[in-house]
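Dear support,

I submitted the protein below through the web form. The confirmation email said the job was done, but the results page showed an empty box. After a refresh the structure appeared. I'm attaching both so you can tell me whether what I see now is the final result or a partial one.
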Amino acid sequence: MEKYDPRNVLDNPERDTMQAQIAAKLEEERQRRNLSNRDFVALIKSFASEKEFSYRTYYLTMRQEQNLTLATVALFARALEISVAELLLPPDVLEPSMKRLDVQQIRDNIARALNAFRSRKDMLKKDVADLIGISVVTYYK
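What the results page shows now:
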């Protein structure tokens, strides 16, 4: 399997917007808590296993160069005691019901949306995975 390389990623304005939102929210939370970058990473790491999160992940996330998984976003949310939706969406579009969604509900919503799209376009799962720039294995998750 090919290693992730941000230079090979398809243009995806929605992902770019979400990455910018996540980085901005993390920075807002770091400043609100008056923590250095190292202390902020230590806070997040306290909710993760050693392999689950590293300073490099944080650094690349802040530079919007990290291809974040939903599990990593959920880790940020857990550590900061906010919802996953609050990390993914700007406050002006965030509805109260969205704050209550857990990771599995978000995955289910994404799966339903992708399956509906795939059905409408009469596409194979592999083709949808290629179109949105993820591996087939990730698509099946």
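Response: this is the final, complete result; the empty box was a page-load delay. Residues 13-32 form the longest helix (20 residues).
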